[in-house]
Amino acid sequence: MNSDKKRTAELETKVIRVKSLFGKSLDKIEDLTHRKNSRNSLVSLSKDENKPLKNQSLRTKFSKKPGGQPGQEGTPLKMVENPDQIINHKPDFCNCCGNDLSDKPEELVLKRQVVDIPVIFPNYTEHRIIKKTCFCGHQNKSIFSENVKATISYGDY
Question: Residue 5, CB half-sphere, CA atoms under 13 Å: how many?
Answer without folding.
Answer: 2
